[in-house]
Design brief:
alpha/beta; Rossmann fold; 27% strand; elongated
Length: 183
Amino acid sequence: MRACARKAGKVYDNALITSFAAGCAAPDEYLFRVLYYDSPLFRGSVQLPVSGQTKTFQASDRWLLELARHERFAVRRGTLAFRGWKPKTSPIAGHVLADEDFSPVFEQKGVDMRLGLDIATMSDQRTVERIILVSGDTDMIPAMKHARKAGLEVVIAQLPPPAEPVHDSLLVHADAQRSVAWP
C-alpha cells in the first residue's frame, strides 16, 4: 500500500491509512477492527560499503504508536533488518566508488507470519464473519484458505491506480474482490 500510495502522489501517513481503512468497509458493514501490519524504520549502526565508517540510522516509531491510538486500530509490528548495500546505478565499473553510490537494503521480517496467525485465530475463534484483506502477497494464501474453511468470508481489496491488479492466485482463494479508492 505504501509504494502504491507514493506512486499515486499521496502522502503515506496516518491520515491516509485511517481514511483508506474506513473506505474498505461497505456502508452496511460494521468495522470491527483494523489490524495494520508494518515495521518501524531501522535503527542501528552499520558499516558504510566503501569508507568503512559507521553510519547510524535514527528513526522514530512514533507514527506507529499514534496509529495504534486510533479508534478500532491495532498495530502489529514486524522488524526491519539491514541486509547490506546495493549500487544506485548499474554498471558500477569504470569510476571510483564512494559511499554515496550505494543505497541501504532493508528487509521486513515477521509481518506475514503475524498476519497469518491473526487470520487463523479470528477464523478458529469465529470473532468475525468477514475479513477484508489489503495485500498483494501470495504468502497470504494459506491463511485465506484456513479462513474460508472455517466459514469466514474473505474479501480481497484492490488498491486504486497505479496498483497492479490483484494476482489471480489470490482471487482464486477469495470470496470477493472489492475496489477501494484513495481518500
